[in-house]
Amino acid sequence: MSGPSLTRRARRGVTFLGDATCPHGVSLAFTERHGGVSTGDFSSLNLGDACGDDPAAVAENRLRALAALGAEGLSGRLVNPRQVHGDHVVVVTSSEAAELASVRNEAGEGADAVVCTAAGVPVLLCYADCVPVVLVAEGGFAVIHSGWRGTIARISAKALATLATETGHAPQEVRAYVGPHIAGEDYEVSAGLMGRFVDEFGPAAQAGERLLDLEACIVQTLVEEGVPADMIAGTHASTSRETGRFFSYRATGGSCGRHGALVVMSDR
């Protein structure tokens, strides 16, 4: 099995990073900020509905992102949790309306990872510096929002274990994708927080004296849990440097939209 990779793609005016092979029938997109209808600080493909943008614009942007992923007509099944920088994982096993309503109710209380084994159910999480992580196995996928709190709580390990349980496939069979986020060399934190990460992850956490490398910590977590290192694909894009492509909370002082990790599995 060849390793996963992310390439920059454009479809229907929306630019995103994805895996053209659609492993196990899973289509994934780490969206960029262009191709939508939002204006001002949210220009233009803002997918976040909790940052002050016009709800009608966000709804249109989400439709465009779904279309770019080949998921037209599935907006009514979209699962988009309220992200709270925790480590709660919700599970979707059916596209039936009653289960989706139950999942959305649970996700509305707060969740930062979704494990989905249902075909035709798109999952969206939103970001503006935090780390997007997508895990793919035969029969399911996980979408993870991993800021510093989620990373130190090892939310990626929790989502991986849940995905393995739900699909019956071991971590060694999982492909992982780490999307665009604030890079270690750009992410200065307090000495106290840096110390906590070094205590938890060792020197790999440091890109500099007080520069925190969240991706290195996440990759280390996944490898320790059994995902082969050559089955983990990353990007070299730093959101805080590439504000022409991505939204960055830190670079803009908090006034910005959100790009997304959008994933759906076909019923092949």
TrEMBL record:
GO terms for molecular function: copper ion binding; hydrolase activity; S-methyl-5-thioadenosine phosphorylase activity. Keywords: Hydrolase, Metal-binding, Transferase, Zinc. InterPro entries: Cu_polyphenol_OxRdtase (IPR003730), Cu_polyphenol_OxRdtase_sf (IPR038371), Cytotoxic_necrot_fac-like_cat (IPR011324). It holds the Pfam family Cu-oxidase_4. This is Laccase domain-containing protein. It catalyses: inosine + phosphate = alpha-D-ribose 1-phosphate + hypoxanthine; adenosine + phosphate = alpha-D-ribose 1-phosphate + adenine; adenosine + H2O + H(+) = inosine + NH4(+); S-methyl-5'-thioadenosine + phosphate = 5-(methylsulfanyl)-alpha-D-ribose 1-phosphate + adenine. SUPFAM superfamilies: CNF1/YfiH-like putative cysteine hydrolases (SSF64438). Belongs to the purine nucleoside phosphorylase YfiH/LACC1 family. Purine nucleoside enzyme that catalyzes the phosphorolysis of adenosine and inosine nucleosides, yielding D-ribose 1-phosphate and the respective free bases, adenine and hypoxanthine. Also catalyzes the phosphorolysis of S-methyl-5'-thioadenosine into adenine and S-methyl-5-thio-alpha-D-ribose 1-phosphate. Also has adenosine deaminase activity.
